[in-house]
Design a protein that fits this description.
The chain has 264 residues and is of the alpha/beta class. Helix content is 32%, strand content 13%. It is globular and about 50 Å long.
């Protein structure tokens, strides 16, 4: 005879937290959802938060495989990631909002904006893209995501894509590489998903010495929307926007005021 022991049913697991615990709680009239570069997380955008308040709350989106979601399986296909992100953001779309992405994050923000523009929520007021060629343009370099670990790490390090403190700690690097490889797979295998173009305004931002994208390739983002497009070029490389840079913050604030119709 087989005895089956019954145990009390535990609580249902909480849904994945796409935003940090303090995001979505500020009493700002508008929100900016930010998507980082490959391997990046909420910390990349955190310095902007006090600078854009009280007009706009900066809400970094953290993908599986990063930061507190390190143990979750990272996504490697855009068509699987986008619906999950949209579901995670729906509770926070109760006021005007825009989406922003840097590098790989630009492609994610763009596809999320397209999905949200089709419903069920209010569509985004605008999209800000940074440091990535327009999605319909061909690649300029060979893919990195299939390289052996040592070669992959060296190639990404040359792009300044791995923090020095991670490179100096082998155990931390081993934790970092799978998520980074997944991000590069996501970015390098991405092709625009089916669907109509955007109708919201799009703002393009880039550094004038970025080896990953030229101003002309950023200008091609104007083809993804039937709405207005603007391009701003800053002095700097691929990470021209890192930290707190007054001219960048001023330009971003100006663009967000235009997109979100908020005033100080």
């Amino acid at each position: 005879m087989t005895i089956v022991q019954a145990y009390p049913k535990g609580p249902e697991p909480a849904p994945p937290a796409w935003l940090s615990s303090d995001a979505g709680r500020q009493d700002a009239p508008a929100r900016l959802f930010c998507f980082a570069h490959a391997g990046g997380g909420a910390g990349f955008f955190r310095p902007w938060r006090p600078l854009l308040l009280p007009e706009v709350e900066v809400c970094p989106v953290v993908l599986p495989g990063r930061e507190w979601r390190l143990r979750e399986r990272p996504y490697t296909r855009m068509e699987e990631l986008v619906p999950a992100v949209v579901d995670g953001l729906l509770p926070y779309l109760d006021r005007p909002y825009a989406l922003m992405g840097h590098s790989m994050g630009s492609a994610v923000a763009y596809e999320v904006a397209r999905r949200l523009s089709a419903g069920p929520a209010t569509p985004p007021a605008g999209l800000v893209v940074s440091g990535r060629r327009a999605p319909h343009l061909p690649k300029r370099r060979a893919d990195l995501h299939g390289l052996p670990d040592e070669e992959f790490v060296a190639a990404v390090a040359r792009l300044n894509g791995i923090p020095d403190q991670v490179l100096r700690q082998p155990d931390l690097l081993r934790l970092f590489v799978p998520g980074m490889r997944a991000d590069f797979t996501l970015n390098e295998t991405y092709r625009p998903l089916p669907g109509p173009p955007l109708s919201c305004p799009v703002s393009g931002l880039t550094g004038d010495a970025d080896p990953e994208v030229t101003p002309e390739e950023m200008l091609a983002w104007r083809e993804v929307t039937t709405g207005p497009f603007t391009l701003r070029v800053f002095a700097g490389d691929h990470f021209y926007l890192k930290g707190v840079r007054p001219d960048f913050i001023d330009a971003l604030r100006t663009d967000l005021r235009r997109l979100l119709s908020v005033t100080s």
